[in-house]
């Protein structure tokens, strides 16, 4: 059980590291307001719903695009 929790924490840590690597910390802070949406399939951050729709049509054409209200 403890191991399971550690694994979870390690996963979160790795995810944060990956996010920092992707954007850089200062850049991430500056853009954090504009990048609150994420692709529900691959978690790519997007500035707004329009970008999500375009991204999904291009990258995940077989996935249903969730409504804007679900973000
Ligand atoms: Zn995606």
UniProtKB/TrEMBL annotation:
Region (Disordered): 1-31
Location of the protein in the cell: Cytoplasm; Nucleus
Keyword Cytoplasm: yes
Principal location class: cytoplasm
Ranges for domain Small EDRK-rich factor-like N-terminal: 1-33
Domain of life: Eukaryota
Annotated GO CC locations: cytoplasm; nucleus
UniProt keyword list: Cytoplasm, Nucleus
Comp. bias regions, Basic and acidic residues: 1-19
Pfam families on file: SERF-like_N
Keyword Nucleotide-binding: no
UniProt-listed InterPro entries: MBS1/2-like, SERF-like_N, ZNF706/At2g23090_sf
Name of the protein in its database record: Small EDRK-rich factor-like N-terminal domain-containing protein
Organism lineage: Eukaryota, Fungi, Fungi incertae sedis, Mucoromycota, Glomeromycotina
